[in-house]
């Protein structure tokens, strides 16, 4: 295995100017190719295909992927598909794919699973360690195609190209994709939504790190150090330099979705106890995102979300509402005395969630629920925590409101972003 050489990033290299954009890399990195390797009937009656795809050649390395395409038995949506961006392909690909087939059958839309994002191991590294290494190599060499997010996004674009071509041979003409992925794949999902007009909507999962420079500053404020979960970036000095830089580094502008205009519908899913970020990370970017935008925080869940059924249900419902253009009307206002939510849609329920902590570190805090009353006045539903409730808890408190929005036959569970109320000194 190649020995890793730690490259500490100095302040001077942040002045390097990028000569490439994400869109330019996608256009300049070649055309993808694929071949069909498996065609079979699934355990639930639909048709399952597996493609071997080459998405590109990145820095002399051929990127290869397994791509699963599933066409449900009852196909209701023939122009739109759901695209899951996933990590390394397992040995039993069909067994893994079977976990996803239920959502395709319930929706009635083609489902695609792109594996091997990123291709790994490379340089003896995987996941965050690999991404951080490519950032460091960029600063060391000033070669502009090093950042790994470039080929990661290109791989998703290539998958849309190849699946459109293949499904056309099956008599299905896909025009739009709902793209979703978790962690680094959620990061990739955001960027894909910024650069390809075939994206119907995005569901980035557990990537609560937009506006990276301010995020790093807030980690220092809340934790006194950077999260151990992002230690691969800290090892190269990247997190410290981003936090302390007077201007936003060009690399951050290239890979941080905060600096892109992402105009497609967005449903952000995260866990309240994700140890990668601070509890109110979303406060640093959510309000700056373009509409339509929604968020779903799952209380007492972590980075590897355990409640996968809720996640799949949210993706299914969001896909249908995007296709049918029936997205909910939902907003909120953070007040000094609590959180107020407003919607003109039918509401099934409203629930408050709160957690307490003597410090600003809520990673191990237990979230408790409380039923909230809501009122309908002139078609506007309002509900909020009261100031007396907040004052009754003599410590730091984080809270959010969960709402079940009724849209026809479907209920989409949404939340506000978490709000921290600091203990009075």
UniProtKB/TrEMBL annotation:
Coiled coil: none annotated. This is PhoPQ-activated pathogenicity-related protein-like protein.
């Amino acid at each position: 295995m190649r020995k890793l050489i730690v490259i500490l990033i100095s302040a001077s290299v942040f002045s390097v100017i990028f000569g490439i954009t994400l869109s330019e890399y996608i256009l300049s990195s070649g055309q993808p190719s694929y071949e069909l390797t498996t065609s079979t009937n699934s355990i639930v009656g639909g048709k399952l295909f597996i493609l071997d795809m080459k998405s590109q050649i990145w820095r002399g390395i051929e990127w290869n992927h397994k791509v699963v395409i599933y066409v449900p038995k009852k196909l209701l949506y023939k122009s739109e598909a759901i695209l899951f961006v996933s990590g390394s392909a397992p040995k039993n690909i069909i067994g893994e794919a079977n976990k996803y087939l239920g959502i395709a059958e319930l929706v009635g839309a083609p489902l695609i699973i792109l594996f091997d994002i990123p291709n790994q191991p490379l340089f003896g590294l995987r996941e965050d360690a690999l991404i951080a290494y490519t950032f460091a190599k960029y600063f060391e060499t000033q070669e502009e195609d090093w950042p790994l997010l470039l080929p990661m996004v290109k791989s998703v674009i290539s998958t849309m190209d190849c699946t459109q071509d293949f499904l056309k041979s099956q008599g299905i003409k896909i025009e739009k994709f709902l793209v979703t992925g978790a962690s680094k794949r959620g990061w990739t999902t955001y960027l894909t939504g910024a650069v390809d007009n075939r994206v119907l909507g995005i569901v980035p999962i557990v990537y609560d790190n937009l506006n990276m420079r301010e995020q790093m500053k807030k980690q220092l404020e809340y934790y006194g150090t950077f999260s151990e979960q992002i230690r691969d970036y800290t090892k190269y000095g990247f997190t410290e330099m981003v936090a302390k830089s007077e201007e936003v580094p060009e690399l951050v502008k290239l890979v941080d979705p905060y600096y892109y205009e992402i105009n497609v519908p967005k449903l952000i899913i995260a866990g309240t106890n994700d140890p990668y970020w601070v509890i109110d990370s979303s406060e640093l970017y959510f309000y700056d995102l373009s509409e339509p935008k929604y968020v779903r925080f799952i209380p007492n869940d972590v980075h590897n979300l355990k409640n996968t059924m809720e996640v799949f249900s949210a993706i299914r419902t969001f896909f249908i509402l995007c296709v049918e253009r029936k997205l909910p009307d939902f907003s909120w206002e953070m007040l000094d005395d609590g959180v107020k939510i407003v919607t003109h849609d039918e509401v099934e329920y409203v629930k408050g969630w709160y957690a307490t902590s003597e410090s600003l570190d809520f990673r191990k805090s237990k979230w408790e629920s409380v039923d909230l009353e809501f009122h309908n006045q002139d078609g506007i539903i309002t509900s909020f925590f009261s100031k007396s409730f907040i004052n009754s808890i003599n410590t730091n408190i984080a809270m959010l409101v969960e709402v079940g929005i009724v849209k026809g036959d479907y209920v989409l569970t949404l939340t506000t972003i978490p709000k921290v109320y600091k203990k009075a000194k």
